[in-house]
Amino acid sequence: MRARILLEDANTGCVASFGEKLCVILCRFSRAEHQLVLPLWHPDQAPAETFEALIEWHSKSFSSNTGARLSGSRLEWKEDRDEWVKVANGDH
Length: 92
Fold this sequence. Notes:
The chain is an alpha+beta fold. It is built from 3 helices and 4 strands; from the N terminus they run αβββαβα. α2 links the parallel β3 and β4. The protein is globular. The termini are far apart.
């Protein structure tokens, strides 16, 4: 239900991670920032691996000088924010 409400905002979309398991992460997009908001995790998904892959993909796809930055500061769940901080800081 929450995902559906978020997707009603015109600036909200999603990215998907395909590996052995599907993960969809709802995001708010602006020119300056791509904010991760609500991951819809597969029950066996390792969030750290998904965040690491997303950071790598994003840095290759969007130039740091001209593209939007990727942020996990607006993740709705504390556990997701904590995991994001570990991965973004290279602590994982």
